[in-house]
Design brief:
The protein is mainly alpha-helical. It has 6 helices and 5 strands, in the order H-H-H-E-E-H-E-H-E-E-H. The strands form 2 sheets. A 3-stranded parallel beta sheet has the order 4-3-5, with helices on one face. Strands 1-2 form a two-stranded antiparallel sheet. Helix 1 packs across helix 3. It is rod-shaped. The two termini are 47 Å apart.
Length: 216
């Protein structure tokens, strides 16, 4: 059955319930002639008569009654399921999966999230701590917390934390032996401790060249 014919089936069910084209048309918000034409078209496509019509009464044929008894409970079930889904519109509920780093969890997300969870007990939040940048769509996450500079151009980002700055530290003995850097580019000539993320190319002392960062 084509999708375009679903409406005609729903209209047939309404006529069968009401046993009257006028009342059914009023409930459907259409004209009696439009409704009658749609039912005739449905009968033509099916190749079977569904309704017996007189000037006063409408009743289902044997085939129409069989179709009605088959479709009606299914439509009621679909309507009930749609009603259940619409509850999500009025009250937050369900599971939210978020990928983020330990630092983002401890200092940015959890302080904001804890009071929200107490207000919405039907919401479950899964916080997956991972230093690598996971593909949010492919790995079926609802959101991810990232440094602003690592967000792809096609992603929607909202700033959730203040800008922060990175600093470079060294032991006094190291500085005495190798000298003090005066510019971030000087770090390229020093023995830095770098971190590598599998989803990014290269390691990250180069990130110390950026003076401002924020979580998104």
């Amino acid at each position: 059955m084509l999708r375009d014919e679903i409406k005609d089936l729903l209209w047939f069910l309404e006529v069968a319930r009401e046993a009257n084209f006028t009342r059914a048309a009023a409930r459907l918000g259409t004209s009696q002639s439009t409704l009658s034409h749609a039912i005739k078209g449905l009968e033509t496509r099916l190749g079977v008569r569904l309704l017996n019509r007189t000037t006063r009464n409408v009743s289902t044929t044997e085939a129409g009654e069989r179709l009605f008894r088959s479709l009606a409970p299914r439509i009621v079930d679909i309507e009930a399921q749609i009603s259940d889904v619409m509850e999500y519109r009025d009250k937050p509920t369900g599971t939210v999966r978020i990928t983020l780093s330990d630092h983002a969890l401890d200092y940015v997300v959890w302080p904001k999230l804890a009071p929200v969870l107490s207000q919405y007990p039907d919401v479950t939040v899964e916080l997956i701590c991972d230093p690598d940048l996971r593909n949010i769509i492919e790995d079926r996450y609802d959101a991810g917390v990232r440094l602003g500079e690592t967000i792809d151009n096609d992603m929607i980002a909202v700033k959730i934390g203040p800008d922060w700055r990175m600093i470079t530290v060294a032991a006094p003995a190291y500085l005495a032996a190798h000298g003090r850097p005066h510019h971030p580019n000087d770090l390229l000539a020093h023995n830095c401790i770098g971190s590598r993320q599998l989803s990014l190319a290269g390691s990250t002392p180069g990130s110390s060249r950026r003076t401002g960062r924020s979580w998104r």
